[in-house]
Amino acid sequence: MSSTPFRDTATKVARTSDYITMSVNCDRVRSHSWWKNVVEYGAWEGPGGARVGPPTPEAIDGIAKLFNTTADQVAVMVAADWYGVETDTHLSARMLSLTPVLDSLDEEDAELVETLARRLAR
Question: Contact 32/39 with Cβ under 8 angstroms?
């Protein structure tokens, strides 16, 4: 797993959305300037010595909505970025984001996705 899966995921979202849209799409649980600072500086760092603190527990659901993943996956990402706590699994930010989607598939569709992913990875 990346040591900054939260920032990695936020950066990926920021490639297709501006910071104001990110704020709106997370139900405004975090401001556009917070998203800008997370993407540009990462956890605890910020412009001019300002800190980018972790999201509050109340913000997790909105961030999960923005990241298109579960609240549990966002909590894992927060723990890694802000506190250096990593799970025993070594999953990328991409996998943390895709896990709930893949788990929701029926077996036939999951096999199809696995076959496609393995073919594309060649």
Answer: no
